[in-house]
Design goal:
By secondary structure, the chain is mostly helical. The protein folds into 2 domains: 123 residues, no CATH class; 48 residues. The chain has 9 helices and 2 strands; from the N terminus they run H-H-H-H-E-H-E-H-H-H-H. The protein has a two-stranded antiparallel ribbon with strand order 1-2. Helix 1 crosses helix 7 and helix 8 runs antiparallel to helix 9. The protein starts with a helix and ends in a 7-residue tail after the last helix.
């Protein structure tokens, strides 16, 4: 899938922002708690809509349902200044009930309409598995693990401890895969 340079750059920053929010200094999954904190700070975050939309867009993480993926594909190929109005996406994107009040606050901002379209595009790209060429079977296995983690997170599956199942792609699954790869290269496992 090709994206515009605008969405390509922002999608990387959005991924990094979610990764940063995912775990604390002890490696515990705290994404749900940190997103709740961000949502409470929306009044302050609204000031960053134009300069750092990816930092604000995380408040809508898992808040969109995409009914017309082909429309989202087209949207993510657009430049920043060519994005459609948020209202024109009503048949392609719906908000989860908890996200609607947040969107009403955002839409009060001068750039709110533009931002909602950007946030939907970023979340769509985040939830879409990457379709990069695979150079070897190790990469293919890792991509498959990442896609499974992302699907579980996006479907709202919860861990038994109440976390949302998203490990920021740097949790135990990735750690174990890294340990396996190092062992295959001849390094000793850390125990």
């Amino acid at each position: 899938m090709s994206t515009s340079p605008f969405f390509h750059n922002l999608a990387s920053a959005y991924q990094a922002e979610l990764d940063d929010l995912s775990s604390d200094s002890e490696g515990r999954n705290v994404l749900r708690q940190r997103l709740a904190d961000k949502r409470r700070e929306l009044g302050f975050l609204r000031q960053m809509i134009e300069l750092s939309p990816e930092m604000v867009a995380v408040v809508f993480h898992q808040g969109f349902q995409f009914k017309q993926p082909q429309r989202m594909e087209q949207l993510t190929k657009q430049a920043s200044e060519d994005l459609p109005a948020w209202a024109t996406l009503a048949d392609a994107v719906t908000l989860q009930p908890w996200a609607r009040p947040l969107s009403l606050e955002i839409l009060k901002e001068p750039m709110g309409d533009w931002f909602m379209t950007v946030a939907a595009g970023l979340e769509y790209l985040y939830g879409k598995p990457a379709k990069a060429p695979v150079s070897d079977s190790d990469s293919e296995d890792q991509d498959s693990d990442d896609d499974t983690d992302r699907e579980q997170s996006d479907n709202g599956d919860a861990d038994s401890d109440g976390d949302d199942g998203h490990d920021g792609h740097d949790g135990n699954g990735r750690h174990e895969a890294g340990e396996d790869w190092l062992a295959e290269q001849g390094f000793d496992r850390k125990d």
